Amino acid sequence: MVKKFRLLGLAAALVLVMVLAACGGGGSEEESDSDSGDNGNGGGDDSNGSVELGESDLNLTYVAWAGALVRTPLIQEVLEEVGYNVDTTQVEAGAMWSSVAQDDASFMTASWLPTTHGNYLEQYGDDVEVIGEFVAEAPLAMTVPSYMDVNSIEDLQDNEELGEELDWTITGIDPGAGVMQSTETAIEEYGLENWELMESSEAAMLSELQTRIENEEPIIVPGWEPHWKFAELDLKMLEDPQEIYGGDGDRIEAIAHTSFQEDSPAAYEVMQRITEDYDTEMENELLVAVNDGVDEEDAASQFLEDNPDLLEKWTEGIGE
């Protein structure tokens, strides 16, 4: 009888061990699957390892200057790739800064600091922040065709022959542009009282510049780099001993409202990545394509198609 109970007890113990082993094995498999899932997502800010979009409706403001015209659609397309709805609004420089400072626009793509837009930074600096740099050095100056016999802004002082030939007029762009304000300052500081800065637009200025060069006639315009005109036309910047235009040049940066990173963290991250890689060479590639007749949006799309590694780098782990 005792022997019978011992056998029954041993059988029960074996069954219990088997049950526990089965349960333990199931738990280990689930845990392994869970770990594998985490590693597959690669970590991150949410359950699937991606940076969250936050506010998904964005508005980018920009000015109708060549560089901003090619940067903005490129950025728009990348942000839309990760799930944002992006509207773009073309404005003048003052409105570009004020809209970002008032948080009416998410960010803008054409800040020139410290010189050209220095007055805007002084006015709105408490409400905005730099989120990335497109170009480290972007020189500006009065610019003329290389065949003209002037090399410095000082050469315009009391230059009766050139003044009469140009009707004492410097052909400018839109009045809100920082380079226009710098040119007004240069006229005053260099004693060019006879000269007048004519307001127009970048497109009108470039049209006049090309016409004058085709006829080998003189012209003076405010110029800046990077810009296709320096690749396509034979131009020179006039020396600026007083550094009214900022010496070696401004930084071209993206500026956002101070709440942008918190409101749209994925867009902030994308902009950090883009500006880390963006440089003068990249901008010139886009500018030359547009000058050759390609639409700005098409130029941006073609660039991303030709550089899938960059697009992947800029968007990896972002969005949904």
From TrEMBL:
Stretch forming the signal peptide: 1-21
Protein name, entry field: Glycine betaine/proline transport system substrate-binding protein
Organism: Virgibacillus natechei
SUPFAM superfamilies referenced in this protein's UniProt entry, alphabetically: Periplasmic binding protein-like II
Coiled-coil intervals: none
Subcellular locations according to the entry: Cell membrane
Listed PANTHER family: GLYCINE BETAINE/PROLINE BETAINE TRANSPORT SYSTEM PERMEASE PROTEIN PROW, GLYCINE BETAINE_PROLINE BETAINE TRANSPORT SYSTEM PERMEASE PROTEIN PROW
Domain ABC-type glycine betaine transport system substrate-binding: 57-305
Keywords per UniProt: Cell membrane, Membrane, Signal, Transport
Region (Disordered), start-end ranges: 27-51
Pfam families: OpuAC (PF04069)
